[in-house]
Amino acid sequence: MAKLKLGAIADDKPVRLTVEFPAPLHRDLLAYAEVLARETGQPIPDPLKLVAPMLARFMATDRAFAKARRPRIQTAGDG
What we know:
Elements: H1 23-40, H2 51-60, H3 63-69
């Protein structure tokens, strides 16, 4: 069985956003939800609920983003 990057979805209080996806991305999201449901044994009633965990996972594993967010320590040579 394939090892997906996304695991079970935590139930958390959401913040409502409105976004538009290209049709191919939406189809891929639906397909991902089907595979995830089979892998985890949990039904995915709304595939759009996958978007937030996917974005969180993406940002958590983006090294350049993590580096940019770190506070910069000034040294004596910094102006």
